[in-house]
From TrEMBL:
It comes from Lentibacillus persicus. The keyword GTP-binding does not apply. It holds the Pfam family TPR_8. This is Tetratricopeptide repeat-containing protein. Keywords: TPR repeat.
Length: 336
């Protein structure tokens, strides 16, 4: 008992503080996921992973949320991290990888991981799902030439998927060795070289990147990718006259393909030509570009710079929902 000055007595209060642990955050995340509140689920699960980074269950659940919102690249990265950390003992990851690759259209990879799962999980929770997936993707084994063709196409798509994720997340040093391999394996795909010079430039090899792009432009004076890259390179290098020459060349170019349209819009936005960027972003079909974090990021920044904060915020929120990594970056309102 404690005697108070006014003569009133009360019990000593011993308050035990509540310190949430990983299971608490995980439960909250799972509940949000069940209610289709995916953005909230990601926030709780991220806290769970921060609390217990070695718990594979938390990371697998996060990957499932990413899969649900179509962020297959982020989901696969988490699953591969779990397999590496657990010495490939967390076999559920194989089925989840198979499912993601099926969504991405990489059927041989999907079959491979589904088979690994079935071989290693006799009584696994996803066994019937994996068997159903295998049935859906069944390819006649007797068509040997077709199998070879699928293998080559899948290999290219796997490279492109991985590099796309690294480029979207500005992971240049991870992208460069893969791009160097692709230059050897798929020399007929000219866009690879432009991605390579882009990654080189932003990893610090500015002179090499500019020289390589100038060589390509000399061979192909109308190369859209060369003009967009050089516009960016010269802007970042402070070579304004050279920058103006290339951006003016782009101002009258209106490509047919959505990816090329986005490339021009982002180039305009990243180099401060926001009015031009806004006009190009408005012409894009968003449903074709939902997997591109750069679409939401630079369209949001462009809208904010042109005095449309509500539109900028809506784009940013949608981008963060579809690409959770975007939430870790500064919003458009914090950019000068």
């Amino acid at each position: 008992m404690q005697q108070l000055d006014n003569g009133v007595q009360r019990l000593d209060e011993k308050i035990i503080p509540f310190i949430p642990d990983g299971d608490f955050y995980f439960t909250k995340g799972a509940e949000a996921f069940q209610k289709d509140k995916f953005e909230t689920a990601i926030k709780w699960l991220r806290k769970a992973i921060e609390a217990e980074p070695k718990n594979p269950l938390y990371q697998c659940q996060m990957s499932i949320v990413y899969t649900e919102i179509g962020a297959y690249h982020a989901a696969n990265q988490l699953l591969n991290d779990v397999l590496e950390a657990t010495n490939e003992q967390y076999t559920d990851c194989y089925y989840l990888l198979a499912n993601n690759y099926a969504h991405l259209g990489l059927l041989n990879e999907a079959k491979k991981y589904a088979k690994i799962y079935l071989d290693h999980s006799a009584g696994g929770d996803f066994r019937s799902d994996a068997e159903h997936l295998m049935d859906l993707m069944h390819i006649d084994e007797e068509e040997g030439s077709n199998d070879w063709q699928f293998d080559e196409e899948d290999e290219l798509l796997i490279y492109q998927e991985t590099i796309f994720r690294h480029m979207e997340d500005s992971e240049w040093r991870k992208a460069i060795p893969l791009l160097e391999e692709m230059l050897v394996l798929f020399p007929e795909h000219k866009s690879i070289k432009h991605d390579y010079t882009y990654a080189l430039f932003f990893s610090g090899h500015t002179r090499d990147a500019i020289n390589m792009e100038l060589e390509t432009l000399a061979e192909e004076p109308d190369s859209l990718n060369s003009h967009t890259n050089l516009t960016m390179f010269y802007y970042e290098s402070g070579r304004i006259k050279d920058y103006e020459r290339h951006i003016n060349a782009l101002s009258n170019v209106y490509p047919m393909h959505e990816q090329q349209k986005l490339r021009i819009a982002v180039t305009f936005a990243r180099t401060g030509a926001f009015k031009w960027a806004h006009a190009r972003f408005k012409q894009l079909a968003k449903w074709k570009l939902k997997n591109h974090k750069t679409y939401f990021k630079w369209y949001s920044i462009t809208a904010f710079q042109l005095g449309e904060p509500s539109k900028a915020l809506a784009l940013w929120k949608e981008g963060c929902k579809r690409h959770p990594q975007l939430a870790e970056e500064e919003g458009p309102w914090k950019r000068q």
